[in-house]
Each structure stands twice: as C-alpha cells, then as structure tokens.
Design a protein that fits this description.
2 copies of one chain form a homodimer.
Chain A (H helix, E strand, L loop, with lengths): L5 H11 L6 H13 L2 H17 L1 E2 L6 E2 L5 H4 L4 E8 L2 H10 L4 E5 L17 H6 L6 E5 L4 H14 L5 E4 L15 H9 L7
Helix pairs in contact in A: 1-2
C-alpha cells in the first residue's frame, strides 16, 4: 500500500504494534490524530514519555505506581490481613471497580506456564510468602484457565504450611447470562460450587 | 475507578479519546506500553510529534503529504485526465490498494451535511473545479450514504456545464456476500445498475 507520507506510515506502524489494533484501525487512528491540533499531539506524546519515566513497581505489592509503597499499600483504611493475589495489574483495576474488596493486593506478574518457560521463579512468589506474617486470608483471583488452575494449586500448596486461609474467587455462570449458552466446564463448576439458598 | 498512578490515568485518557477505543481497551494498551522498553516509548512519542510537524496538505489534491505536490500529483506515470474525487484521505488508501486506478485524486475533506452545518464552502469544491481544464472524466468515489448521494448530485450539477464526463463507482452486492442477506436498498440498486453479460 502506498502512503503519501513516511511520517504517516511510521505512526500507523506504531499503532499496529499495539495489541488488538489492526492495520485498518491504526490508519483510522493516525488520520484522526492528523485532524487534531498541535496541543493534542504534544499532550499525547508527553503522556507516553511521562508514563515510562514516572511509573515503576510498588516494592510491596508490585503494582504499577509513581510512589512506593503505592496508595493502596500505604492506606491505613485497607485491611492488611486479607491479601488478594492477582496475575496482572489490570486485574486490580477490575476488582477495585466492584468496591467490594477492602484488603490489599499482591501482583504475581504472570501465571505458571511451562510451555512459555514461565516458572515459579519468574513470578513474585517469594515476595508473596515474605508478606504473609500478618495475613489471615489469601484470596486467589486468578483466571480459571489451565495455567491459572496450575498456579492456584501451586500457591495453595506453598502457603499450606503457614496456617493462612487460602480461598479462590468463584467460577460459574456470569450474571445476566443463560444456562442454555454456558459451556460444560463452567456449568459443571457451577454445579459443584452450588451454595445453600437461605430462607 | 482508582488508579495507582496519575501518569497511567493520563495515558488511558489519551487512548480513550481516540475513535473506537473504549476505556477498557485504553487500559489494556496503556499496560502494554508499560511493559515495553524505553526505546519503544520514545519511538511512539516521536512518531506522533513527527506526524504533526511534517505532514501537511498537498496544494493540488489536498491529500496529506510531506512534500507538496504529493507523490501522486507529481507522478508523470499517472493519468491527469482522470480525477477520482473522494471524501477523506483514507479513501485514497483503500482505492490505491486495488491497484486498479491510475489517474489522480481530489480529496473533498467531507461531504455535504446540512444538519452538521457542512456546506459546499467547507469542501474543496472550488479547488476541484479549478483543476478540471485538462480533465476528461471525474469519478466520484463517495460513500453511498444519504449525505454522499446529496454530495454526488451536487458535484454532478456543478460539473455539468464544463463538458467533463462524471461517473460514480458502482453500488451493489459485495463480492463474497449473498443476495439472501443483502438489504433492499443495496439489492434494488444492484438490479437497477445491472450490466449485460458478454458471451
């Protein structure tokens, strides 16, 4: 495809390199940016540089933060005896959105995946164990995939000797979804994990 | 939603401001960029600034270009007697991809839209008329929407006194699609514009 400008081609390529952005979307985004004023482009460019310069890992939970410990780790209002373990920083955002969880977090930065060569040493597991002295419950909020299951079992075994309760978030039929359209794995898990109806 | 960093929030907002990028995608993109090295972020930032600094309009066809006239307008190999009129620069990319069209382009930068206050003066129409002295055919490659139809009729009337042939690209059933699933408007247009089968 012939572009009338190398500068356009370069930004289309940058956008295409992002996950879930195909070449056509990258073109549309580039043309959108061409129509914006100079200040918009400067702001966008600064936001990128600023992100990389200022954002680092929290030394405690390993979430992204500008100051370490991060606001959640530093907060006195949050229950430090309950630790929610997640695979990725985005998972924290999703859980925070529920406004249900008032404990602290620990980010593993991945799940065990022998095929991709991700072993226990690649995850923040030693750092998790080191945090457990004041902790009463570890909630594993890890995706119910094969790798997630393996990681959940691995962490549960690791924590077992330490006399800390280990739980995992429930799997089942999503709210608003239908039994008819649920896959067998989800449905059998939902049956297994059935709970008493209280009168 | 609480972010652990203002720098993250700012880039999420920049990505969200782009068309077709929702907040969740913007988050995913921002976290993706956090995982890249510094060079990647510098390249991305430069591509943005570079785009705005170097890309301008071609004085002839009004496509985006770094040098005016743009490579297509400057090319001796392209037939300057056939002019393809499009609404937006992206349309040029789509047509160039076919490798079918060997003439030159003219970009209107919009279509007539009274509801949004876009009148003939907002489009590059005077500039189109000024280019027609050597032109034998004007091909209107404008989306077959209501606004597009109005624009096509308007341009056809405008050019009529100038003794230049005016054509429009065909509407009909897309290749690979089925009659069964075509909407009535497309199907009646396809029937109307039927062509003889040559033996």
């Amino acid at each position: 495809m012939q572009y009338s400008s190398e500068a356009i081609e370069r930004l289309v390529e940058m956008f295409s390199s992002l996950p879930s952005i195909g070449r056509k979307t990258a073109q549309r985004l580039t043309y959108y940016i061409l129509r914006q004023d100079t200040q918009y482009v400067i702001d966008f460019s600064k936001a990128l540089i600023n992100l990389k310069e200022n954002v680092k890992f929290c030394d405690t939970c390993f979430n992204y933060t500008e100051i370490s410990p991060c606001p959640i780790c530093a907060s006195e209002k949050r229950d430090k005896t309950v630790l929610c373990v997640v695979a990725e920083p985005n998972d924290v955002l999703a859980i925070e959105k529920t406004n249900e969880f008032k404990g602290k977090y620990h980010i593993l930065h991945g799940v065990l995946n022998p095929l991709e060569g991700i072993s226990a040493d690649d995850l923040k597991l030693k750092e998790l164990i080191a945090r457990l002295s004041d902790v009463k419950e570890v909630i594993l909020a890890i995706n119910p995939s094969i790798e997630g299951e393996v990681t959940i079992q691995y962490i549960a075994k690791l924590i077992k000797p330490l006399d800390v309760k280990v739980s995992r978030i429930a799997s089942g039929i999503p709210i608003g979804s239908a039994i008819e359209y649920s896959d067998e794995a989800t449905l059998s898990r939902a049956l297994e994990a059935r709970i008493n109806v209280v009168f």
